[in-house]
Specification:
Elements lengths: L1 E3 L1 H8 L5 H10 L3 E3 L1 H9 L4 H13 L1 E2 L5 H12 L8 H13 L2 E3 L3 H6 L9
Parallel strand pairs: 1-2, 1-4, 2-3
Helix pairs in contact: 1-2, 3-4, 5-6
């Protein structure tokens, strides 16, 4: 499964290529999983109801990570890897945690996160 970071979703919703086509194909193939923190970030940036309605529709139709303890586990991981010292916050630590311990690949444009992930944890075009 591919966990798609907020940065890629933004490109998708702006219909920027190659992100739009690639993500659409992954969604259609049921290869995308998401976490509430990602869609919370997307909703935080909405400019109007139409945008928020569209984002919420995707949220309802994608497979979701339902692990309430993920913030606790991510906090432990962050502490052990000193992620805060590297400029990586808790939300990004949650994504790294899920990739590391659930065999997901992360599709992100965030260079700080990419430096911390192992090659098998990264999805790229």
């Amino acid at each position: 499964m591919i966990l798609v970071d907020t940065s890629v979703w933004i490109e998708f919703f702006k219909k920027h290529e190659p992100y739009f086509t690639e993500l659409r194909e992954l969604i259609e193939a049921s290869e995308v999983i998401t976490h509430s923190v990602i869609f919370g970030e997307l909703l935080q940036g909405c400019k109007n109801k139409a945008e928020s309605d569209l984002i919420e529709e995707y949220w309802r139709n994608l497979e979701q990570i339902n692990k309430p303890e993920s913030f606790i586990e991510a906090g432990r991981l962050s502490s052990s890897l000193k992620l805060m010292d590297r400029g990586v916050g808790l939300i990004d630590a949650v994504l790294i945690y899920h990739c590391r311990f659930n065999n997901y690949r992360l599709w992100t444009l965030d260079k700080k996160i990419l430096k911390l992930l192992k090659k098998n944890e990264i999805y790229s075009l």
